[in-house]
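Re-run with default settings, no changes from the original entry. Doing this only to confirm the output is reproducible before filing.
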Amino acid sequence: FPVTIAVEGGVMRELLERAARNAGYEIHWHDECVINNGQCGVDKWNPAESDADAFRLMVDCEILTNVESMYSEAFTDPKKTIVKIYFDDHNNDKAAATRMAILRAAAGDK
């Protein structure tokens, strides 16, 4: 599955790259957005921002998730929590916290 990552350098780019590689995705880098009729022409892959990208990553990496009252968890083994992300770190956005938990678990973070 080919993905285009269009983010600036730094921690997020490294996180996206590790997750994509762990999922077995083919990575294409794109540092600048191509403008076409006022719209960005790059279909970027970013499971931290896209529910669809996070869902596909979760399925491809066989990640289990659990949403509690204050946080989301992501597991690669049902008996061990790999990542726990608190909602208040994401403006109480449960979906954003869950996407980040999936991304970090796929990247191999703990």
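The two ends are 25 Å apart (CA to CA). The helical segments are 11-23, 51-60, 94-107.
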